[in-house]
Amino acid sequence: MTQTLGQDTLDVLLRDVPFVTEVHYLPATTSTNDVLKGLANQGAPEGTIVVTDEQTAGRGRLDRRWIAPPASSLLFSVLFRPALTAQRAHALTMLCSLGVRDAVRDALGLAVGLKWPNDIVHQGQKLGGLLTEIDADSESLRWGIVGMGINVNWDPSAISGLAQPATSLSNIAGAPVPRQGLLKAILQAISQRYAALKEGVSPAREWEAALETVGQRVVVEGGAEGLEGTAVGVASDGALLVRASSGQIHRVLVGDVSIRPDAKG
Ligand code: BTN
Where do the domains of the chain lie? Predict the structure, then answer.
């Protein structure tokens, strides 16, 4: 399925999603996060989104590249201006990843999981990722941008050198998946969850419950290098709580975790 999305299509598609204020479609660009950062610094309103069909410099966490063939995926970024401190910015990642999970379930009938800190997964394979970036002063965020990349209609399993095995929605469904309806469902779910956050409802406990990482034996790479233990939960700021064999609980804020397939915590 190689049909592109297009500005006119997106304008019509997303006009009744309450949270969406401006839609910027680019047939190709460097990185939707980078484009949206420029718009945010020029004063773009909360709810501005940048959507593309192709990125030439798509970025992931830990300076990784994000690869997707043209018109194969959902590649977009969302601008938030929440009354949150920088320490609470992970709430944006939480609510967006829960929104993606909900939308994939409701729009496609597929059950996908979440892996700490920013992965959408299916049976241990990465289906998508979120890249959250912020600008803040000592009091609160000026903006938070959550970029989302979801593998839809291509087969990433053949790509070598990936940080973890990958899959796509079409691989899981066994058929091509229309991208427009899914994008709308994701933004609607995010819209509802963001409204709840503004009412003071933290997504932390629901996100913790959705994380496949919790309850598993894990190895932490990067950040708290060499730490092994059992993931026992997440703190309200998104830190993964890992109980080492000594019994000590470590807070992990940066890094990757591999789930050890041999044991449950
Ligand atoms: C990760 O898994 O490390 C995060 C991947 C995030 C990729 C998306 S694609 C849209 C947006 N623009 C980017 O450059 N990155 C994010």
Answer: 7-209, 213-264
